[in-house]
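so the lab meeting is tmrw and i was supposed to have these ready like two days ago... anyway. pasting both below. for each one the top line is the aa sequence and the line under it is the structure tokens. i havent really looked at them closely yet so no promises
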Amino acid sequence: MTDKKCKVCRRAGEKLFLKGDRCFTPKCGFTTHPYAPGRLDSERKHKSTLSEYGEQMKEKQKVRNIYMISEKQFSNYVQNATKKTGSHIISPALQLYQSLEERLDNVIYRLGLAKSRALSRQIVFHGHITVNGRKINVPSYKVRINDVIAVREGSKATKLFTDLINKLKQHTIPNWLEFDMTKISAKILSVPTEIKDTFDLAKVLEFYSK
């Protein structure tokens, strides 16, 4: 039987890597059952055709599940992204992406300190992370340029953060982050300037515009 995270991927029709490294194992629920839960054998060979609204909803759910946030939180991010303020206005899609990426739990994930956003959320929630020297245990905390994010001194010896050099060998850190391996700390250099992930935020915005 596949777990809840695998079912989310199966409904999305693709791997969302919600379980980190475990998504690459042969026992991955999406690998063994690459179709939506509850579909009959006769239906599995045929792809269902979604309406435009259905495609938009599917993309919205996909992004929301990737970042592991509630519908209320997500709709608030969308609302803020579509507000026009100031003389220099970037696209609402990029504003939405920046808001999602600037969450503290996402930054921990992007730095490679956690193999999944679920784990990064736990790391923040359990008080292992500081921002500018102050312990922050709110996963949705918004980081800002020049903020210094670090593993709390008392947490560095835990299993979560041991052998980081080997763990991060294959990990690529985004160019808007700077990571100091010796101090296990990072600095926010800028905001993301382009959408790197394989999802369509324009469809998401269209869903909420109706």
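ok protien two:
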Amino acid sequence: MRKRNLCVFAVFTLASMMSSVRAARAAEDECAGTRLTANLVAENDSGVTGKALLCITDAGVEARIHASALTTGNAYTMWFIYFDNPSKCVTPGSCSDLDAFTPTDDPEGVFGRFDSIVAHARSATFSGHGGLHLSSGSVVSLEIVAHGVPSEDGKHRARQLLTPQIPVLGAPGLGTSVDGTVGNPVAAAQFILP
């Protein structure tokens, strides 16, 4: 009787797990608007790869990244970079991170943190959403920045998970001289809006 109960419990547990996986996959595939996908490309020899999704609706934008080859235990942030008119970038039609802070009075690029995690495995999903309205022909770049092992100090850990830790982007809000340039871009995906 005990053996039978264990088998029933095992089958029930397996069925519940499979149902959860199916529900998670269905949620990943949902997009009630324009769905764009792109490969996540490794930067700075990180080896980080994966897939990115941009879902554009009348209500706004949702972005997701499924990343692999992360370092377990390290902190990561996901950044949403928007270039409304790529012809106005420093190198017209070829926007880069430089366009998010040059010229300093009105840069073409606008960026903000969309998610952050401490990797509990070698792969993870980042996601974020906002009420953004994207122009036709604009460019969106999703970027993952690595921050190393999370600090035990609350203020320092907050900087790891809430800023890019790249002071040249705008100290002290985007990085501090005390920390130095700790944030390391490890992967990005880019989308050109139809």
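from a quick look at the 2nd one: The beta strands are 34-42, 49-57, 60-68, 75-83, 109-118, 124-130, 139-148, 184-192. Residues 32-192 form a domain with the Immunoglobulin-like fold (CATH 2.60.40). will dig more after coffe
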